[in-house]
Design a protein that fits this description.
Radius of gyration: 18 Å
Mean pLDDT: 79
Shape: globular
Structural class: alpha+beta
Order of helices and strands: EHEEEHHH
Strand content: 15-25%
Number of strands: 4
Length: about 200
């Protein structure tokens, strides 16, 4: 099994490039950008079955309507845009900052069609809901983002099943081990993830 987590933080130069109209607000490029990424490659994707939570069709299914409503609600609530729907179980949250103070929030994630894909989608939205750099070290930020995502799933009646919990534990184990490797302090509430068998 491959388990890769992509962790990025990047900053653009502190100047704004313009094209054409130097005073045009629409011609600006971001002053700074930052991203938070999570990539989980699973052994195999379960087949799509009619009558289950893994339906692909957008019409006629209560589950599909729940997932479609989830996406619409969270895009509006947190003013985020979907940069790309991914085919794989991975995602990235982006934040672009402009000189005039505007912030553009984007995510790349799998389209929610099952509890696992919904949890990854929610995890990326959670980075915007919780806020970048609100918690330190990074492993603590990931913990609170996962807590937000799991609460949102429960509130919307989306099953937090064994597969979702496995992804959550594997993600936390990775970030806690990374913090330890970098010599960072691991908060007490995260000690449970140090010696996990993943």
């Amino acid at each position: 099994m491959v388990d890769v987590f992509n962790n990025q933080a990047s900053y653009a130069p502190s100047s704004v490039e313009t094209r054409g109209d130097p005073g045009g607000a629409h011609s600006e490029r971001p002053v700074a950008s930052e991203s938070r990424g999570l990539r989980i490659v699973v052994e195999t994707e379960l087949p799509v079955r009619r009558g289950s939570e893994r339906l692909r069709s957008r019409g006629g299914s209560g589950r599909c309507e729940v997932y479609d409503q989830l996406v619409a609600d969270l895009k509006a609530r947190y003013k985020i845009s979907i940069r790309k729907w991914r085919k794989h179980m991975s995602g990235v949250a982006y934040e672009l900052k402009y000189r005039d103070g505007r912030i553009k929030r984007l995510i790349t994630a799998p389209r929610p069609r099952s509890p696992v894909s919904a949890s990854i989608f929610l995890h990326e939205v959670g980075h915007h809901a919780v806020g970048f750099h609100r918690y330190s070290p990074r492993c603590l930020e990931e913990y609170y983002v996962w807590q937000w995502a799991l609460r949102e799933m429960t509130a919307r009646g989306i099953s937090v099943d064994a597969a979702v919990l496995r992804h959550y534990r594997r993600s936390m184990h990775h970030y806690v081990r990374l913090a330890m490797k970098q010599g960072e302090h691991v908060p007490h509430e995260l000690h449970q993830f140090i010696h996990l068998m993943v």
